[in-house]
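Summary of Year 1 activities. Much of the first year was spent building the evaluation harness for sequence design. The harness presents a backbone, in tokenized form, and records the residue chosen at every position. We chose the following record to illustrate the format because it has been used consistently in internal testing since the harness was completed.
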């Protein structure tokens, strides 16, 4: 018996009945403008409407108890917050993206009658073929879109040499470009120089710290292939645990740093990760933290601090929803350029930086301008069981200033993603916003599309897309 797959799930007890209703294509609404004194009307725009699909289904039950069980299973399976993939066995190779409009009353009737009609609504009115993946053999490649509608490509560019721009162009002069090329009068320069890149798999070069500003140092820091962690928190009534520090190879004025951390709190407990940026005299210039300070509820917060407690600037923040930062696996970042500080926190999911919080501060009084010379890591617990915490990697960079130059935007090994389906640009999973004036996200037209990538010999390029059908 033929069935359907919804949200990646097929129920072996559901079978399709005759009578599916689906328009041959989505209807189009014409928006017209009437001008007094002129014959006819003007066409302002056209809007493609959602595509409804009504599919009768049936199933076999053993008794009333089983019918109730299947009704609940139907509701749990079919009610989703967002459109999800829908596939019918009798339409092989085609995928719709749909939500279900049925109510709980409908599902009650399903159980009573052992059959009913599932009302799907495709907000995106097209069906899609299997994903096509093409690896470019040169900087020019031809892709053939055999669908009946334009397709949305996703390009991935692996960088082979430092670049100041990246551009991909379709044959009809549509193009997407980020960054900017270097002219004869420009100087290309690295916007930052790596000072520290520590995978945190060894304690060599790190020594025990002597000060934290909101608790006590106790216990033992340990490390493995995944990073630093507290093998022993020691004892204490307030925040307590190990802290270690290391010196930078040079003191930095303008700098940025990124720290990859884990603070997993869904199983309960309290835990705090802090990273200090210290001057040569071990005074706190800046500090970042990610912590769950609540004993009986999972609730993660970010912390950004400048200066020592006696004269500090401090900000706290949380995501829009507490669940966005449950089991926090992500980054903490800070930068200082002149008087301007920026701190940024985000989780990493599906290779993208998500649910970010940004803190900004301008140091008009020059209170927090001492060069940083040391990095300190503290991992601590309090009165409850500790959360699972690790510091996975620390990057510290010197920010270079070249006011008349063009900065490189990506280096060897970086991955640039130009997602024309979502209108997003990412570099190594992080959103990038320096899109060149005049460029835009484009579609693959029906038939052949000849694409070129610039600068030449700078990328390993691939494209993926799904052919669309009206």
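For this record, the design step produced the sequence shown next.
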């Amino acid at each position: 018996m033929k069935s359907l797959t919804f949200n990646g799930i097929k129920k072996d007890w559901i079978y399709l009945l005759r009578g599916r209703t689906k328009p041959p294509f989505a209807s189009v609404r014409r928006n017209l403008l009437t001008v007094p004194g002129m014959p006819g009307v003007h066409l302002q725009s056209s809007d493609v409407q959602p595509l409804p699909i009504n599919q009768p289904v049936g199933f076999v039950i053993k008794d009333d108890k089983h019918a109730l069980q299947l009704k609940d299973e139907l509701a749990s399976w079919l009610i989703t917050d967002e459109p999800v993939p829908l596939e019918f066995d009798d339409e092989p190779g085609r995928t719709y993206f749909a939500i279900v409009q049925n109510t709980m009353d409908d599902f009650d009737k399903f159980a009573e009658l052992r059959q009913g009609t599932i009302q799907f609504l495709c907000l995106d009115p097209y069906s899609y073929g299997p994903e096509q993946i093409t690896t470019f053999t040169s900087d020019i490649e031809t892709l053939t879109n055999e669908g009946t509608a334009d397709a949305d490509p996703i390009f991935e560019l692996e960088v082979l040499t430092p670049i100041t721009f990246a551009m991909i162009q379709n044959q009809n002069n549509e193009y997407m470009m980020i960054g900017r090329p270097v002219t004869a009068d420009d100087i290309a320069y690295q916007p930052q120089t790596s000072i520290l890149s520590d995978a945190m798999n060894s304690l060599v070069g790190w020594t025990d710290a002597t000060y934290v500003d909101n608790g006590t140092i106790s216990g033992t820091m340990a490390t493995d292939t995944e990073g630093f962690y507290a093998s022993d928190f020691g004892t204490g009534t307030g925040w307590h645990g190990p802290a270690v520090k290391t010196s930078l190879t040079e003191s930095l004025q303008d700098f940025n740093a990124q720290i990859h951390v884990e603070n997993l709190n869904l199983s309960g407990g309290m835990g705090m990760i802090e990273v200090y940026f210290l001057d040569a005299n071990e005074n706190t210039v800046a500090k970042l933290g990610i912590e769950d300070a609540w004993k009986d509820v999972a609730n993660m917060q970010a912390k950004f601090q400048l200066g020592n407690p006696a004269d500090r600037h401090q900000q706290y923040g949380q995501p829009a929803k507490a669940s966005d930062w449950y089991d926090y696996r992500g980054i903490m970042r800070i930068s200082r350029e002149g008087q301007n500080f920026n701190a940024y926190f985000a989780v990493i999911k599906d290779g993208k930086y998500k649910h970010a919080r940004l803190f900004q501060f301008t140091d008009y009084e020059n209170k927090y301008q001492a060069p940083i010379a040391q990095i300190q890591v503290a991992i601590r617990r309090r009165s409850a069981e500790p959360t699972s915490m690790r510091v996975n990697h620390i990057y510290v960079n010197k920010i270079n200033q070249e006011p008349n130059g063009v900065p490189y935007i990506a280096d060897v090994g970086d991955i640039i993603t130009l997602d024309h389906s979502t209108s997003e640009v990412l570099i190594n999973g992080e959103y990038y916003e320096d899109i060149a004036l005049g460029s835009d996200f484009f579609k693959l037209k029906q038939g052949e599309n000849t694409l070129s990538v610039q600068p030449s010999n700078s990328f390993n390029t691939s494209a993926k897309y799904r052919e669309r059908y009206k």
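The domain at 4-125 is CATH 2.40.30.200 (Elongation Factor Tu (Ef-tu); domain 3). Quantitative recovery figures across the full test set are reported in Table 2.
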